Amino acid sequence: MFGHIPGLMFNPRKQWQTIAALSDEKIKRLLPYPIIMALLPPLALYIGMTKVGWTVVGDDVVRITEASAIPLIVLSYVALLGAVVVIGLMINWMSQTYQTASFPIKGIVLMGYACTPVFLAGACAVYPIWWLDIMLGTAASIYTIYLIYMAIPTMMRVPWDRGFLYASAVFMIALVYVVVILVGITIIWEYIATPVFTN
Predict the structure, then answer these.
(1) pLDDT, averaged across the chain
(2) What is the CA radius of gyration of the chain?
(3) 58: pLDDT confidence band, cut at 50, 70 and 90?
(4) What is the pLDDT of residue 133?
(5) CA gap 51, 69 in Å, rounded
(6) pLDDT(112) > 80
(7) Contact between 55 and 61 (Cβ < 8 Å)
C-alpha cells in the first residue's frame, strides 16, 4: 500500500500504470491508504501549534492550547479526508459520461494516491516556518494536480485527449471544494473553534 509512494513521487507515469493493472479487489484493499495518510498533516499541525510554536514578529514564540487545538485538528482531518472522498466519488460518477467502467472505491483510491504530495508536505507543519510551509504546500498542490492529470487517463482507461477533459472537470470540482472549505474554516474559526493562544 505505501510502496507506491516513491514511484508516485519520482516516476508517476509508470506507477499509475502499475496501480491501474491491479484487479478491482486489490484496488479495494488500497482504501486504508488515504484514511491513514490524511492523519499526517493534522497530527503534524497539532505538534507544531501546541509544542513547537511559531514566531510572527520578533522572538516571541506563539502556541495555542492543546484543548483548543483538538477541534481544529479533527476538523482539518475531516476536511482533508472529505476532499479525497467527495472528489473520488465525483471521479466515479463522471466515469459514466466518459463511458468507462469504475466503482466508488476506485475513484477514492485514485484521489488518495494523487494527494500523496499534499499529505507528505503537510507533515512538515510539525515545525511551523510559515514561509517554508506555504512554499511546500504550493509545490505539493501543483504536483497533486499533475498527478491527477496523469492518473485519470491511465486509471480510468480513457484516451489522453478525453482524459485531459475528464481531469479538468475533476480539477474544477476540487476548486469548488476548496472554496467551500475556506468559507467553512472562516466561520468555524470565528464562531465555533476559536483557538486560545499561549506563549
Answers:
(1) 91
(2) 18
(3) low
(4) 87
(5) 11
(6) yes
(7) yes
| Domain chopping of the chain, boundaries | 2-52+59-198
- Classify the C-alpha dihedral 167-173-178-181 as positive or negative: negative
pLDDT digits (tens, 9 = 90+) for 1-44: 899 999 999 999 999 999 999 999 999 999 999 999 999 999 99
C-alpha cell, 6: 516513491
One-letter amino acid for residue 126 of the chain:
V
* Whether the Cβ atoms of residue 42 and residue 70 lie closer than 8 Å to each other: no
Instruction: Give the DSSP per-residue string, 121-168.
Output: HHGGGGS--HHHHHHHHHHHHHHHHHHHHHHHHHHTT--HHHHHHHHH
Asked if 94 contacts 113 with a C-beta cutoff of 8 angstroms, the reply is: no
Nearest-angstrom CA–CA distance, 74 and 166: 32
Q: Which of 34, 90, 45, 86 is nearest to 69 (CA)?
A: 45
> Strand, helix or coil at 8?
helix
Amino acid at 20: A
- With CA atoms as reference, report the closest residue to 41 among 107, 111, 109, 115: 115
d(C-alpha 188, C-alpha 71), whole Å: 10
